[in-house]
């Protein structure tokens, strides 16, 4: 019998994209409730407890309630796409490529926390350099990023697309998270293996799906002898043997005049770049992804497939 999957929040931005990715799959059975009943707690509880895997695409508080609804039922495994459980040690962090053991942890887990979109890029760049001893303790890491507006869910989509919305946003590009306390900082710190929280400055552009995450570094303050080439080699070695996270060869990135935030729209992969001048003293590490692809829905489906393979 095909495993049963219930997407709680299936009519929201992340949920809809997961459903689209599952369309036509015969190896799983999708449980569903009508859009008008999406907040019907009794129906949701019933679906949640009849699923083999429940994928939660809800705000944090609703995710916590949903986990309560299934906590006593060991037959149900959970993938949560919210921020609620990402630094909870009882949950496997759903970024399979972040180190060699992570895919097996996800396969075996009952509870999997899908990463945030920005942390996917930031951790993808930082963690291999911490693990290789290139990025030393105490380094003042900064993370600057731009996201497509779908990252803000149904509410921000309406604000950006409907000029008559009472809180319409007309800016083509804006900074937010200005108090520097964005909810993704703990996750970047813990899973980036950082001993010091990064300064994180997010922004949104007037495009639906896409994301650029930048981590600029001074080579003089890294492990002795670190070069642009050695950083690239460490990233390339870390991500060898799979094709979801790729490290763009230096010979290719050197020839690029610009990086297009929407290049990977609709894709579930991530590209990493090392920019700078050979022999120079600085590099800019860049991650390119779709906030709803590897940054959310694509990662959730990848995690579901790993769990089903166990
Ligand atoms: N958008 C993105 O790029 C990313 C989103 N995420 C995370 O995914 C989760 C979902 O976000 P997103 O899809 O963007 O949000 P949306 O607002 O687009 O969708 C959320 C859905 O959940 C429903 N919902 C809200 N509260 C409840 C409740 N109490 N009970 C049942 N259903 C409820 C909403 O219904 P209603 O329409 O009635 O409000 C809506 O259908 C969030 O935790 C978000 O942080 C993670 C990574 C990236
Ligand atoms: C553009 C935008 O608003 N982005 C969201 C993050 C999207 C994401 O990764 O979702 P989680 O809430 O699940 O972490 C934000 O900054 O809150």
From TrEMBL:
Please state every residue range assigned to the domain named Semialdehyde dehydrogenase NAD-binding.
4-106
Q: Which chain positions lie within coiled-coil regions?
A: none
This enzyme catalyses:
N-acetyl-L-glutamate 5-semialdehyde + phosphate + NADP(+) = N-acetyl-L-glutamyl 5-phosphate + NADPH + H(+)
Coarse class of the protein's main subcellular location: cytoplasm
Q: What Enzyme Commission number(s) does the record list for this chain? A: 1.2.1.38
> In UniProt terms, what function does this protein have?
Catalyzes the NADPH-dependent reduction of N-acetyl-5-glutamyl phosphate to yield N-acetyl-L-glutamate 5-semialdehyde.
Q: Kindly tell me the pathway this chain contributes to.
A: Amino-acid biosynthesis; L-arginine biosynthesis; N(2)-acetyl-L-ornithine from L-glutamate: step 3/4
Gene this protein is translated from: argC
**Active-site annotation:** 117
Q: Which organism is it from?
A: Rhizobium sophoriradicis
Into which EC class is this enzyme placed?
Answer: oxidoreductase
List, alphabetically, the GO terms of the cellular component aspect: cytoplasm
Question: Which Pfam families would you find in this protein's record?
Answer: Semialdhyde_dh, Semialdhyde_dhC_1
Q: Supply one GO BP term.
A: L-arginine biosynthetic process
Name-wise, this protein is: N-acetyl-gamma-glutamyl-phosphate reductase
Similarity comment text for this entry: Belongs to the NAGSA dehydrogenase family. Type 2 subfamily.
Q: Which UniProt keywords apply?
A: Amino-acid biosynthesis, Arginine biosynthesis, Cytoplasm, NADP, Oxidoreductase
Task: Name any one GO molecular function.
Answer: NAD binding
**Where located?**
Cytoplasm
Q: Does the keyword Amino-acid biosynthesis apply?
A: yes
Q: Which InterPro entries match?
A: AGPR (IPR050085), AGPR_AS (IPR023013), AGPR_dimerisation_dom (IPR058924), AGPR_type-2 (IPR010136), NAD(P)-bd_dom_sf (IPR036291), Semialdehyde_DH_NAD-bd (IPR000534)
Q: Does the keyword NADP apply?
A: yes
């Amino acid at each position: 019998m095909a495993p049963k999957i219930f997407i709680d929040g299936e009519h929201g931005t992340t949920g809809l994209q997961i459903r689209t990715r599952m369309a036509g799959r015969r190896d799983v059975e999708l449980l569903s409730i009508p859009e008008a009943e999406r907040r019907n707690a009794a129906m949701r509880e019933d679906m949640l407890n009849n699923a083999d895997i429940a994928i939660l695409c809800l705000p944090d508080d609703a995710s916590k309630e949903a986990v309560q609804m299934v906590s006593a039922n060991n037959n149900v495994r959970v993938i949560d796409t919210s921020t609620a459980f990402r630094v909870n040690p009882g949950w496997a962090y759903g970024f399979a490529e972040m180190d060699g053991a992570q895919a097996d942890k996800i396969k075996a887990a009952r509870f999997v926390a899908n990463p945030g979109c920005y942390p996917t890029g930031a951790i993808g760049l930082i963690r291999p350099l911490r693990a290789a001893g290139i990025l030393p303790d105490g380094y003042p890491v900064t993370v600057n990023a731009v996201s497509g507006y779908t990252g803000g869910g149904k509410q921000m989509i309406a604000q950006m697309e409907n000029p008559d919305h009472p809180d319409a946003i007309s800016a083509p590009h804006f900074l937010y998270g200005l108090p520097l306390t964005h909810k993704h900082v703990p996750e970047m710190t813990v899973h980036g293996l950082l001993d010091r929280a990064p300064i994180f400055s997010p922004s949104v552009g007037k495009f639906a799906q896409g994301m650029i995450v930048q981590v600029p570094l001074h080579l003089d303050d890294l492990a002795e002898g670190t070069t642009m080439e050695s950083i690239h080699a460490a990233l390339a070695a870390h991500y060898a043997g799979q094709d979801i996270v790729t490290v763009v060869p230096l010979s290719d990135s050197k020839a690029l005049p610009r990086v297009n935030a929407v290049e990977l729209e609709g894709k579930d992969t991530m590209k990493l770049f090392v920019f700078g001048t050979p022999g120079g003293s600085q590099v800019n590490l860049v991650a390119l992804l779709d906030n709803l692809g590897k940054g959310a829905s694509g990662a959730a489906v990848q995690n579901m497939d790993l769990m089903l393979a166990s």
